[in-house]
Inverse folding.
């Protein structure tokens, strides 16, 4: 949700309006139903929990609930389809960027990323910086409202310590700093592709998408008794193309060679 500011003397008012509407939009987009969010009690005054599921490089017609999805793909996303069926589909909602880092920058701040020089996927000086520290993240604002916050999965908004998730309003970060990584355990990790538990590297194990999903479920279970905001930032379906053999066999009925660096 973005707005253009036409007059400089309206900047403060418009900023406040933008941030308020951004919070409302985030809640509307991610609250599947009132019953899910407040344990089935329609009279509960507790703040809503906010869950953002962010897929990377997914196509418009890659999900079964989309009318233009191919028939042979409709069976691939039953759980996502159930969210659409029981919730609301925003058919004219668009990301503010078409690639990894800018799209996150816009969503995290509620501002057009061009306003703070983050409209390129790898802005100049990115390895020594990241999303400008002058910008305030949604997570920071929610922390002030008493929310427990977490980012699970891909970050891609800055590598140095002061640009990392724990410094931008996330109580718990579990994921990688870089834009992509092998879906299978890597033989040799790098500082930005290894999975971090906050700032501590973790052992290489499991399938990346499963690790992200499992960590998200863990956070929800552990934080269910207080308001929480979780940004689940999947690396999938961003390359490399590395499906598990069990999934290939289940959906395609035969073994197909994975693309890319199949083992890191």
């Amino acid at each position: 949700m973005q707005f253009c500011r036409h007059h400089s003397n309206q900047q403060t008012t418009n900023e406040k309006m933008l941030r308020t509407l951004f919070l409302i939009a985030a809640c509307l987009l991610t609250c599947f139903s009132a019953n899910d969010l407040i344990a089935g009690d329609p009279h509960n005054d507790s703040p809503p929990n906010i869950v953002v599921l962010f897929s990377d490089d997914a196509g418009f017609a890659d999900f079964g609930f989309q009318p233009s999805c191919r028939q042979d793909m409709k069976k691939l996303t039953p759980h996502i389809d159930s969210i659409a069926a029981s919730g609301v589909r925003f058919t004219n909602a668009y990301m503010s960027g078409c690639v990894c880092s800018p799209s996150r920058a816009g969503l995290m701040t509620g501002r057009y990323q061009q306003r703070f020089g983050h409209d390129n996927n790898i802005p100049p000086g990115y390895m020594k910086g990241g999303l400008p520290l002058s910008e305030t993240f949604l997570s920071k604002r929610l922390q002030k409202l008493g929310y427990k916050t977490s980012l699970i999965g891909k970050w891609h908004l800055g590598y140095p310590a002061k640009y990392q998730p724990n410094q931008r309003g996330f109580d718990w970060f579990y994921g990688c700093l870089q834009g992509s990584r092998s879906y299978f355990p890597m033989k040799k990790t790098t500082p930005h592709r290894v999975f971090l538990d906050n700032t501590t590297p973790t052992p290489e194990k499991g399938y990346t998408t499963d690790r992200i999903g499992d960590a998200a479920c863990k956070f929800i279970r552990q934080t269910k008794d207080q308001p929480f905001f979780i940004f689940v930032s999947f690396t999938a379906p961003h390359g490399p193309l590395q499906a598990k053999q069990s999934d290939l066999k289940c959906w395609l009925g035969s073994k197909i060679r994975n693309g890319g660096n199949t083992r890191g």
Remarks:
- Residues 1-40, 260-264 have pLDDT under 50 and may be disordered.
- The chain is about 30% helix and 10% strand.
